[in-house]
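Incident review: delayed structure delivery

Summary: a single-chain prediction request sat in the queue longer than the usual turnaround. Root cause was a stuck worker, restarted by the on-call engineer. No data loss occurred. The affected request and its eventual output are reproduced below so the record is complete for anyone auditing the incident later.

Affected input:
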Amino acid sequence: MPDRAAPRLENTVALITGANAGIGRATAIELAARGAQLFLAGRSEAKMRPVIDEIARTTGGAPPRFLPLDLGDLESVRQCAAEFLRHDLPLGLLINNAGVAGPRGLTKSGFELAFGINHIGHFLLTNLLLERLKKSAPARVVTVASRAHYRAHGIDFEAVRRATRSISGLDEYGVSKVANVLFSAELARRVRDSGVTTYSLHPGVVASEIWRRVPPPLRWIMKCFMISPEEGAKTTLYCATSAEVAADSGLYYDKCKTKRPSTLARDAALADELWRKSEAWTA
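Output delivered after worker restart:
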């Protein structure tokens, strides 16, 4: 149920990726209830339509607008950003929420599937919208990561250009999530004093569509220990709207509190290298 005591957002334009289900859907519904004007980006308008219709029906305001977006296809990412910019609106909130866990293969643009969707696609989208975010300051960039980043032991910059090797895909998922945390921290350093602040977070282990490609026996076991999407959206919403973190940037959050990320995720040299390589790959 929407938190009616939460900050109102009538003057905020927000773009959310992957809002058709799970955490993204719960986040979109709550932001709309607070009055935000929403753009919902995803691969399928048909799958996004129930969320758009529900928000229009329950809030009585203008329905969210759909933006086609395939994060595994860099041309699609460019088209999505261009479509948003054509509306000539401010952008106060970008929520990099979409993701996959357990997939195997390559994206259309030639990256390991989890790395390409979870990191590279969002890296490019954020950078294409960055000038608009700066012009709209104060603005926030919230990137949904995961505590799975603690399992990553490094980033093999050759392996992320090859198809998934592990059977479950979860090793590669951990690498993609440490990339999310590194990206958010490095973005904070690069936009310091611009009025744009950044946040990465662990939403909790949420029963959502992100696990749809994990092999069924493992997926069934995992879901026994998962929380609801509404519970999982709480930390995203905290980072996106709370006045308590308005002056913070580049930090990692869990259960609506700052948390120390892994040693690897605090490696500033690695964050810079990841940024430079991602920039070259998406040029």
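Verification: Residues 127 and 231 are 29 Å apart (CA to CA).
Action items: add queue-age alerting; document worker restart procedure.
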